[in-house]
Records
---
Amino acid sequence: MTSSALAWPGTARGLSRHPLFQRTAPIVTVVAALIAIWYVAAVLMNLTLVRDGFEREETPYTTSELIAGTMSAERPLLPAPHQVVETFLDGVFGYAPNAPRSLIYHSAVTLSATLLGFVLGALLGVALALMIVHSRVLEKSLLPWIICSQMVPILALAPIFIVVLGAIGLQGLMPKSIISAYLSFFPVTIGMVKGFTAPDPMQMDLMRTWSASPRQVLAKLRWPSAVPYLFASLKVAISISLIGAIVAELPTGAEAGIGARLLAGSYYGQTIQIWAALLAAAVLASALIGLVGLAERITARSMGARP
Amino acid sequence: MSNLAEATTVLNPPPRRLAVDVTGVSLTFQTADGAVDALSNVSLGIAEGEFVSFIGPSGCGKTTMLRVIADLQQPSSGQLLVNGMSAEQARLSRAYGYVFQAPALFPWRTIEANLKLPLEIMGFSDSEQAARAARYLALVSLTGFERKFPWQLSGGMQQRVSIARALSFDPALLLMDEPFGALDEIVRDHLNEQLLQLWDKTGKTVLFVTHSIPEAVFLSTKIVVMSPRPGRITDIIDCNFPRDRTLEIRETPEFIRIAQRVRNGLRAGHSYDE
C-alpha cells in the first residue's frame, strides 16, 4: 500500500491504463481544447466592444481588466462558455418549470412537437418504404418525389405550411409537428427500403420453398432483417425532428419553445440567451438520441445480438 | 395438415413410385454475354426412397437442376413431375425440404425458434411445433441447444440445424445443395455418416448436389454425372452398397471402381470443353 503510494510514476502509469481513463480521456481532451479555443475567440471578438465601452466612459483600464471585461460583457458578440452555462443553469433551475423564462418550459413545448412529429414521420416513413418495396410502379413514381421533397429548404417551406394549415384550422402543436414529420420521414423511408430488402437471397428462397405468403415473409423475415436499419434511421430522424420543430417555431413568431427563445434573443441582442437556448437544444437532442440508442440495445439483446 | 400428410404417406406405399420425373428439360439464361444453356434436354427418373447425388464441375447445371425441381426456377421447356405433381403444386403442397450451401439460419431466432419457423408458416399448432422441434433436434443430436442463437454454434452444428429444419415438416423429398461444401473433411465425414443414418431411419428420397467424388459414392444409390456448356447428364451410375454402410467401405475395391468410373465420366465431360 505504502510502497505503491510512494512509487508515483508507477501509479501514474497504472492510472493511464484504467479503462475509465482510456475511455474518457480522448473526449475530455477534445472538449477541453474546444473550450480553450472558445475562450480565446471570446476575448478576441469582444475586445473592441469592451475597449470602446471603457473609452466612452473615460475610465482608465489595464490589460487584465480589459480581458476580464471580454468575459463578462452583458451583450457580447461571443459569450464566454461560463456565461452560457450560467444562463443555461439559471434558465433550467432558476424559475418554476412553467414560468415563461424557464428553459424547461420552452424545451417541453418544443419536445412535445418533436415527439409527435417524430412518431408521425416514422410511421409515414415505414409506410412509404413498405409501399416502395412491394411495388415496382410505386418505387418509380414515389421515390423521385420523396427525394425532391428534401431539396426545398425547410426554412422556405415552413411559413407556407403554417399559413395553409392555419387556413384549415390547424394551429399550435399540429403544424409544428407536421413540419417536423416532413423532415424526419425521409431518413426512415430510405433506411427502411434498404432494410426491407436486406434479407439474403437464400433466406428469401427458403421462404419460397415453404410457400410463405407475402405477409408472412414481411413479418418473419423482412421486418426482423430491417431492425438495425430502423434504429440507424430513427437516430437521424429524431434529431432532425427537433430541428424541424425549432425551425417551425421561427416563422410563427411562437411565444413558447426553443425557437421562440432564439428569436426573442436575436430581437433584443441577447446573445447569451441565444447560446443558452442552443445549449438546451443540444442537450435535448443528445438525450433523445441516447433514448433511441437505449431502445436499440434492448431490442438487439432480445434478438440475440452478440454481446 | 400434418396428420393428413402423414396419412397419405402411410396409406399409399406404392412400390418405388417415381418421386421425381424429369423429361427433356432445358433452361436457357439470357445474360449480357448472350444465352447460356444451364440445362440442355435433361431426362431423369428418381424412384421413391433413393439417394441420388449430382456431381460435376461448376457451371454444369447441378444446382440449377435442384432449383428447377424446387420451383425456384422455371425451365424453358420440358416436363417435370415431383411426386406426380407439377413443380409448383409440389412446392405449394410443401412436398420437399431444401438445404442450401450455407445454413441460412435466421440470426435473431434461437435454434428452437429457427426449427419452428417453417412450422409456424405452415400453421402447425403450438404443441405440435414444440414436439417436432424437440424430436428433430434430437434426430441431429443437438438436444440442449434450444435456447442458443446461431452464432453460438459451430458451422457443422448450424448445418445440422438447417437439415433438421428441412425435415421438421416431414416432406417426402429432401433437396440438398452442397450442404457440407463449406465444412472441413473431418466434420464432413461425420455429417455424411449421420446423414446416411437419417436417410435410413426416415426413408426419404434425397437429391444431393456435391463436388466431392468420395462423398457422392459413399452416400448414393445413384450418381448422376453432369458436364457443363451446355449443362447435361453424361453418365448415371448405380451404386448399391448396403444401407447401413460405414466409412470403411471407402477402402473396398468396389468403392474404388465406382469412384474411378465417376472420375472418368467427369473427365469425358471436360475434354468436350477443349
Note: The CA atoms of residues 266 and 274 of chain A lie 7 Å apart.
---
Amino acid sequence: MTQATAEPPAAPARDDKRWRQVDVRIRRLGARPDGLIEVLHTVQEVFGYLDDGALAYVSEALGVPPSRVLGVATFYSHFVRKPQGLHTCVVCLGTACYINGAGAILARINDKLGIDAGGTTSDGKLSLLRARCLGACSMAPAVVLDDEVHGRMTADRMEQMLETL
Amino acid sequence: MTETGAATPARRRRQESLIPAGTARASAHVCMAAGCLSMQSDTVFDQLCERVTARGLTDVAVKRVGCLGLCAAGPLVVVPEQERLFDHVGAADDAAIDTVVEALAGAEDGGRSVASDPFFAHQVKVVLEHCGQIDPERVEDYVAAGGYEALTKAVTTMTPAEVLGEVTRSGLRGRGGAGYPTGLKWTTVAKSDSADGKYVVCNGDEGDPGAFMDRSVLESSPQQVLEGMAIAGYAVGASHGYVYVRAEYPLAVKRLTTAIRQAEHAGLLGPRIADTAFGFDVEVRIGAGAFVCGEETALLASIEGRRGTPRPRPPYPAASGLWGKPTLINNVETMASIPAILQRGAEWYAAIGSGKSRGTKVFALAGSVVNTGLIEIPLGLTLREIVFDIGGGLPAGGRFKAVQTGGPSGGCMPEELLDMTVTYESLAEAGSIMGSGGMIVMDQGTCMVDVAKFFMDFCREESCGKCVPCRVGTTQMHGLLERISRGLASREDLAELESLAGMVRDTSLCGLGQGAPNPVFSTLRYFRDEYLAHIDDHRCPAGVCVIDPVDAGAPVLEAKR
C-alpha cells in the first residue's frame, strides 16, 4: 500500500470551529454511549478521517472508554484512520460487478497509479477504495468517483476519467 | 417541504414534483432511484418540468418517483394514465424527452406498453405497489395512495391480538432470508413481559452482494416501511423503533429521515396515533460497513454503539434484545408487506404463492441478463420464467450457466434446475437459500471455482473474528480454493476442502460462518467437473483463472508448496 508521502494534515485542534458540528450531533443524541457510531460518522464527515485526538474527544464526550471507541472505529470498514486523498474512487466488488469485470478495473488503476485498494497516491490526489456491494448491481460494474455513481464501467473509461481529475 | 400540497399551483422548486392545481390529466413519473439517478434522471426531470411549463400544459404532472424496476433501460419515465414506459430517456437526448412531452400533450405514439411487456406482465406488486407511483419525499402522496389506512384501521378497530392473528394467517415469512414465520415471531415478542418497554427494529443492513431490494424500497416508498413498523409496534406492545440502514445507501438514509420528519409532522407517527393512546416513534441508525451486522444479534450490538459481533442464541432477541428488552426484528421487505396484508386481509395475501411459501418476493436481477432490475413475483414461479421471461434471457451471445441466489450464504443452480419453482423449500433442497433476494445470472464465461473463491474471500474478510471456525476456517478454505483455481491443488486438497466446509457449517456461531461453505457445497454439487479440470488437467474451462505453470513431470504436492 502506498502511503501519502506528503505531510499529513495536523490533527484538528480542540479550538477548531468544526468541532461545533460534532458537539451539536452529540447533544442531539443525548450524549449517550449508544450514539458512538453516529458520532464517529459525524466526525468523519467533518474531518475526513478519525485520528487519535478525535477518538479521545469522542470518548470523553460520550463517557465511553477509549478502548471501546478504538475498537468500534477499527471494527467497521467505513471508518478510516488516516487522511484520504483529494478524490476518492470506490470500485464495487459485489457479485454482479465482479463477474462483469470489476477486477480488470482495479487492475488498471493499480497499473496506472501504483495503488491498491486502501491506498492513496503519493501526491495525495486520489484514494482508492473498494466496496463489498453498492447495491448498484443493475449497472454493474459500478464505480463511485467522488460520491457520484458511474455504471457499466470499463477499464478504459476508468483510466480516462482518472486522467481528467 | 410544503404541506399545502396540491392546492399550490404549478411551478415549484425544481427539487419537487410539478403538480397541477386540479386533477392531472396525464403525468410523467420520472425514476429517481439510485440506478436512474446515476444516469442523470434528475436532469431529465428538470428538462421535463421546463418543457411542460413552456408548452403551457397546465393539467399535467411531472413527478419524482422511486424505482420503476427496469434499471437496465434507464433513465425511465412512465406515463401511468397511458400505461406507457419510455426507456433510455437520456438527459442530453432532446428527442427522447420531447417524445415524453408529446405523450403528455396527447400523442399516442412512442414508448412501449407496460401491460404487454413480459418484464411487467408476470409481476405481482405488493411490496413494490407504491414504488414508481408516489413521490418518496411527499407523505401526501403516500397518504393519497391509501397509505397509513392500515395503521389507522389497526389501532382504531383491531386489538393487538387481532393484528397478530391477521399476520399469522397471511403466512408471511421473514423476507431477510431465513423465512421464519412472521406471525410467530410477533406473537413471541407480544407474549414477552417487559415492564419498561420493547423495541421494534427494521433490518435494512442489506449486505448480500448482488442484492438491492431493500435499498429500492427505502428509496421509493419509505413511509410504507414506517407504517409496517408502527403496526408491528402496536401488535407487540412497543412504542419505539429503529431502522438500521447501511452507510452505503446515503439516498435511502436521506429519504427515510425525510419520511420520519414528515410523518411526525402530519401526526401519522409520534404520540397518540389516530387519537388513540398508542404512540410510536422511529429513529434511524446508520451502519458502518460490516456485513455481519445483518445478523440480528450483531445488528443489536451495533445499534447500541458497540462492535457488531454476534452472540449465541438463545436468548433470542424476542426475549432479550436491545438493552435486554424484548425486541422484534424484521427485514425491510417484511415490514413493507404488512400494510397491504392488514388492508386487504390475510386471505388475500395467503392466496398468492405456492406451498408453504405464501405471498410475493422481491428479487434483484443482475449479472448476465438483459433486464437487470427489480422485480416482484408470486412465490412459486420457475427460475426459467424469472430469468428468461421476465429477465429477457441472457444478452446476445451469452449461454446460461447458473443462477446464484442467497449471496455469500447461498448457492449456484445449474441449467437442469431451471424448471424448479422458487420457494423457500425448493431453494433449500437445491442447496441454496432464498436469502434476501439477490439473483445473479451467470453465463458460460464464469468459472464456478472462481465464484466459490470470490464468496469465500468475502466471508473471510467479513468474518468478525469472534468464533474460531469462521475466522480460521474461511481463511483456510479460501487458501484451498486459491490453490485449486491456480491449478496447484491435489485431490486430497479437495477432500480437505469438503471436510473443512462441513466443520465450519456445523460449528460456527452465526449465520455468516454457518452459511459460508454453501457456495462451495453447491458448486461442488453441480460443477464438480470444473474443480477436477483445475486439479487434474491444470486448466480453467471458462478461461477465467490464471493457472500457474506446472512442470508436467513434477509431483503436484511439491508444486503447491
Note: Chain A has seven helices and four strands.
